[in-house]
Amino acid sequence: MQSVLFDHEREARIGLPEAIFCEGKEPHVLTALLETCARDEAKPTLFTRLAPEFFVGVPEAVRAAYDYHELSRVAFTGCMPRKEKGSVAIVSAGTADGRVTWEAARTLEYLGIEAHVYEDNGVAGLWRLMSNFEKIAVAEVIIVVAGLDAALASVVGGLIGKPLFAVPTSVGYGVAAGGNSALSSMLASCASGIGVLNIDNGYGAACAAARVINLLNKVAE
Amino acid sequence: MQSVLFDHEREARIGLPEAIFCEGKEPHVLTALLETCARDEAKPTLFTRLAPEFFVGVPEAVRAAYDYHELSRVAFTGCMPRKEKGSVAIVSAGTADGRVTWEAARTLEYLGIEAHVYEDNGVAGLWRLMSNFEKIAVAEVIIVVAGLDAALASVVGGLIGKPLFAVPTSVGYGVAAGGNSALSSMLASCASGIGVLNIDNGYGAACAAARVINLLNKVAE
Amino acid sequence: MQSVLFDHEREARIGLPEAIFCEGKEPHVLTALLETCARDEAKPTLFTRLAPEFFVGVPEAVRAAYDYHELSRVAFTGCMPRKEKGSVAIVSAGTADGRVTWEAARTLEYLGIEAHVYEDNGVAGLWRLMSNFEKIAVAEVIIVVAGLDAALASVVGGLIGKPLFAVPTSVGYGVAAGGNSALSSMLASCASGIGVLNIDNGYGAACAAARVINLLNKVAE
Amino acid sequence: MQSVLFDHEREARIGLPEAIFCEGKEPHVLTALLETCARDEAKPTLFTRLAPEFFVGVPEAVRAAYDYHELSRVAFTGCMPRKEKGSVAIVSAGTADGRVTWEAARTLEYLGIEAHVYEDNGVAGLWRLMSNFEKIAVAEVIIVVAGLDAALASVVGGLIGKPLFAVPTSVGYGVAAGGNSALSSMLASCASGIGVLNIDNGYGAACAAARVINLLNKVAE
Amino acid sequence: MQSVLFDHEREARIGLPEAIFCEGKEPHVLTALLETCARDEAKPTLFTRLAPEFFVGVPEAVRAAYDYHELSRVAFTGCMPRKEKGSVAIVSAGTADGRVTWEAARTLEYLGIEAHVYEDNGVAGLWRLMSNFEKIAVAEVIIVVAGLDAALASVVGGLIGKPLFAVPTSVGYGVAAGGNSALSSMLASCASGIGVLNIDNGYGAACAAARVINLLNKVAE
Amino acid sequence: MQSVLFDHEREARIGLPEAIFCEGKEPHVLTALLETCARDEAKPTLFTRLAPEFFVGVPEAVRAAYDYHELSRVAFTGCMPRKEKGSVAIVSAGTADGRVTWEAARTLEYLGIEAHVYEDNGVAGLWRLMSNFEKIAVAEVIIVVAGLDAALASVVGGLIGKPLFAVPTSVGYGVAAGGNSALSSMLASCASGIGVLNIDNGYGAACAAARVINLLNKVAE
Amino acid sequence: MQSVLFDHEREARIGLPEAIFCEGKEPHVLTALLETCARDEAKPTLFTRLAPEFFVGVPEAVRAAYDYHELSRVAFTGCMPRKEKGSVAIVSAGTADGRVTWEAARTLEYLGIEAHVYEDNGVAGLWRLMSNFEKIAVAEVIIVVAGLDAALASVVGGLIGKPLFAVPTSVGYGVAAGGNSALSSMLASCASGIGVLNIDNGYGAACAAARVINLLNKVAE
Amino acid sequence: MQSVLFDHEREARIGLPEAIFCEGKEPHVLTALLETCARDEAKPTLFTRLAPEFFVGVPEAVRAAYDYHELSRVAFTGCMPRKEKGSVAIVSAGTADGRVTWEAARTLEYLGIEAHVYEDNGVAGLWRLMSNFEKIAVAEVIIVVAGLDAALASVVGGLIGKPLFAVPTSVGYGVAAGGNSALSSMLASCASGIGVLNIDNGYGAACAAARVINLLNKVAE
């Protein structure tokens, strides 16, 4: 049985990353993982939610093996081969969504997928979205990142027919705190066919986009 | 003490309606109220949430005294004096919001306030809002009625600086059922200064608008 | 501005359906819509959540114009042109998820997209999924429909790297009632890159799949 | 299209502030924003939720450019032109609501709108409200700030017919923690026509009031 | 052990009723209980939540043994001995709270405790409470019954120092539906020392008041 | 009007404390309040939720004026006159409920009411309650303090007919975290006539008990 | 792979039932299932949540093949072989929990496991539990069924060290409605080692007990 | 009465531990408890949730008396006598569940029960579970520890018929934060007869397993 499962798994592994989610891991476990993966650069690995406060305390030699990005808290030792086809537009409502926006962007970079980030398109100022619109609409997959009312997902979903994944963020206070207002707004969107991810899950949105981009590339073979 | 309070109350009563909320009232109590108010047409009264199934069973003579509107479930015996200044634009996302939209419209009619209804402006088709935009923007007060993601409130709130009241509706299923997704979306709106009403409270939105229109008329005296 | 938006909208319309959500619509409004669309068979229209109890009372002549499916409550007057590339596997946990499963299947049929349904794959009997596995894995897009613990989404998501959309269903009682246990389970899935839809939103899952299939066909042009 | 939108936006901008919400922004981003805005004093800017712990560490020269108020955590470089007509009464239940109360007051000051603060009017001691009553009732717009049971909003709303906006606060513990008891109490108020803001959103209440005051001034022109 | 417990139980039984909660009981079980208790009139029994639709179908002979009150849905075969000391004021916000208000009143009647009902004291019209105030304040125990914002509990609790029990009602829609807004408002009341009962639990409020009145009578012995 | 209200208020003040809730108050405001009240020892004042970390930093001279109790975080400058009649039994489930248990006890001490504390009576070891039972049952009023399942309230409420107030505590983790499991358990208690307070509100329970004890003393006059 | 899984499954099937959950199944599907299983009496099948209103309409010949129990809504065509060792005590708080209590009892009967039901042991009258105590304590496994505060689970769990499964019921109103107060109370129980089932899941509790009884019998072989 | 209860309690005590839950206990109380129990090594005691930060500050001499395990935060002075029969398999989804997994393992060690831990069996990689499967299936009782979607519980429950207890963990973010997604997933599991514990309650799962193992040993006597 294992061989059967292993085959399918290997197929999946071609497209989706081996990622290590760092939040909540014991410090000594995390350090050991970083050291192990640093030694084996041939096999790229992705670390998400790797806190700057922690990373700064990791031995210099280990840190040097990583491409680390503070805002997104994403580190990797190397990237997967560049995909020939397809690009992803990551559209966010505000700079406060930056952590999640860039977690998606960095994960796509690691996965070898072209991605472009368009920040600060909150619908309270609709003209900002409009000025980026043509560049966004040309991408094969769209990721929308937004907190609060998450109205951006519905507006983009109503204007563009491409595969669209939406990530609610935990930005905000009061009823918006923790991201539930954005989550329910995206799930209940009046625009059809939006795939929603867990709150703050920029990594997951990148994987969802990668599932589509990988399919495009496989079909094109 | 009562005289002081009474004075203020009387002042308030000039603008805000004596309304009877019919839902949950015992049938015989409701019939008695309808009969009493029908006799005293000089003093107009507003009935909200008056179910068609019930109203159709009220004696013909009593029913004849009322201006009843089935979709909104609003009845009144007469209207308050027409306000000279100010009008209200009621903007809804879809026809499914009709009950609440027209409860607001009918309440404003009863209050003697000019109101115009613009339905079916959901942001999944942004051009529908745009084609109504100039007429909406000219009103003194805006009421937005929307369920699901309630993104319409944020889009309108970002485009127009007039006093704006938003009513979430209980339209929808799953996370939208009962109206909580729309409510939290409106409260967390990225557009500033939107006053939110309880779910399905079209009557309350009309009263909130009336507080502003009444002020305009008083100041103009 | 409108022309720009209109162009994009038209582009979107090529792929995504004009659908009429029937739940909560006033009966006379619904009947009028069914009559109008029946007359204009050249332009196919989709009706979702159209209750059998209601449809049976629609005039025979109107009903005859529709392809109606009772379990899914979906009706349409005709289908959109068949897409050349891509198929969708719809995998459900149990027969109790049938309404949602078939709403997705029927919507895909209307959209001209090949779809295959695999029911009764709940993980409490893992061998059922395994016996369907090779047929499922060959599709370009996977839709998982499940209620209760929704564990099926995670198991499928861990085995197959294709674009995957998950629909929680409101099947069940106690903590499962209304579908929130399935929804949160899917959003928190330990498998990466799953796009989640609102509870019971089979129509939305079909649209999400269509966004991918349409992209495949456009790229292949 | 942009020019049309831009016009409306500019119109809105006359009345509503360009505000920078500081909570959750990266420290170096925030410092850069403070420095930029300090240089261009001609264009007043509003910073909300600017923590004293952070502000004290900003370079002296930058700090000097700002009018900062510790309790409200509001800073601005200058104010907008004084409105000729209209004043706002801000009525709070207790001193524990001070942060929100003064955020509203400071935002109105920035917007050039006359505002008066009346604190400590909790209904558990009704005579305190009564002793302030005549001064409150004379204002054109009322803002009520309250946590816990938020009963103050209903009492004021029942006594005064002016436009009224209510802000729930997150003050309290147990069921009151986070402000949800106050929020639902205000939304369900037995007084009609109260526009409710998000929890702790003093800034939003000021904007809602400004929408009314700006209308008054425009009508009077 | 049992005898010890039995003694205390008997002591308790002197004051608190043997009540049968009828909601959810199988019809044939309920009919049997009504028949049994009707035969033994010497031992008074209380039935709560006894639906009029059901009671009307009970055999005439059985029904005749009961003092039944439709609005409160309370029936009893006889009352407990009249307490010499103490009375209870039951103060409600609106007539829509009638079911709960009268469940409390009827339970107190059964328990032999003097009770007076004051309806329609909602704080949106504060003068109504004030006109009843002196009569209310003279009672030994106060019960406040209110839905929506439940502000009445706080206002009464701030004016009167007597033992006060508050019952939230499920009256209302939107955030008020089911009674949670009223419940949290009462628990978070800014007035101190209010004992809160479950939503719609008029029977429980009467029992809580009875615990105090019984104590008063025992102490006076 | 004010004089009328003032009279009732004064009457209330005789029994219920002027209490200052310290949590969330700005440090300099709190220090000023402590200094003011320290000077006027003739008028006793109660401070609740006064954190030890803060109190230790208050000037020695001011601290000396207070009777401070660290676990309960309650301080007062003096007590109210001793009530002649009545005592209160405070029964808690575990030592982890100590903060709330002793907040109630200390508030009663301040109010001049005799109180006895019985800790560690959780129903998982029923014999512990039984060994304290006779002493508890003799008190005029019972306060039950419990977290988790709060089963203690129901067991005590079923054994003793005296006025009973129940305080849920926020002790625990998982579903018990924050106290909601205990709160709903107490509100839904199968024992009748229990008045429930907000989570962790030991002060409120003492006030509720004081309302009863004060009534007893007044009636006895 | 399938053979491996199949083996384990077959092993499991020896102990746990093939059950058909009837709620939400389409009527014609349900009738077909009942007919099929009626024909094959050699292979006993269990139907749960089979509504009396539906069952009465099933053809007489089919109905005759079933042992149907109205209160529990459980039907089966025959029972599994009697287990030699072990019995289960099902202890409920009130008769209103009857549906769930008897669903557990009937499922155990079908599974060939000895079970005894003890109803009406609510802790508000502790002596009722005590009079059944010795008979309950002698069983190998205990199932506690309770709604409202579910205090019974904690009391039994504190007195008896046998495997104990607790089923919350949806009995009650207000905060108890739907069973969440009972569920959280059982999960947070101060007695250790209680396994909790979903709300109203009497069938599941029987299966949990069967897992233990089957183990006992296997070990004894 | 006490002697009866005491007997049963003593019987229970044989199997279930005297455990001290350390979280939330005052430091000086905790230190005193550790000192007392260290002196009396003859009577083993279990401390759970004993923070490493705290334990490191306990006097060396006291610490030396304890077997302390940092990850699980469990300490004990000695173990209970080894049970002759039965072993427990503790199966976890990921290393992030380590705290809870090892709290269960350590509690079983203290209770004298053989236990084996199998970590990292998340269903996103089904082959990991399969490679451990035969060793797991041989145990008498299974404990599943999982966060997020908790799908592991359903998969194991569908494959193995032994008594199974499931512990949701608070691992995760967004909808998974706090453990509610895992909790509801386990309660709604499509596998039958799983007893669910409170979130993060590894100790409780060990006690539930011990109730079964103790029964096995008693029956075997």
Give the class of chain A from helix and strand content and strand pairing.
alpha/beta
Number of helices, where a helix is a run of at least 4 consecutive DSSP H or I residues of chain A: 9
List SSEs of chain A in N-to-C order. Answer: HEHEHHEEEHEHEHEHEH
| Total number of beta strands of chain A | 9
Which labels suit this protein?
homooctamer; disordered N terminus; 5-stranded parallel β-sheet; 221 residues; alpha/beta; 4-stranded mixed β-sheet; globular
Description of the structure:
The structure is a homooctamer. With about 220 residues, chain A is of the alpha/beta class. Chain A has helices at about 1-15, 25-40, 50-55, 60-65, 100-110, 125-135, 150-160, 180-185, 200-220, and strands at about 20, 45-50, 65-70, 75, 85-90, 115-120, 140-145, 165-170, 195. In chain A, the strands form two sheets. Chain A has a five-stranded parallel sheet, with helices on both faces. In chain A, strand 7, helix 7 and strand 8 form a beta-alpha-beta unit. In chain A, helix 5 runs parallel beside helix 9 (about 200-220). The model of chain A is unreliable at about 1-10 (pLDDT under 50).
Outline:
The first copy, chain A, is of the alpha/beta class. Chain A is built from nine helices and nine strands.
Present the secondary structure layout:
8 copies of one chain form a homooctamer.
Chain A: H1 2-15, E1 19-21, H2 27-39, E2 46-48, H3 52-55, H4 60-64, E3 67-69, E4 74-76, E5 87-92, H5 98-110, E6 114-118, H6 126-137, E7 141-146, H7 151-159, E8 164-168, H8 180-187, E9 194-196, H9 202-220
Parallel strand pairs in A: 1-2, 5-6, 5-7, 7-8, 8-9
Antiparallel strand pairs in A: 2-4, 3-4
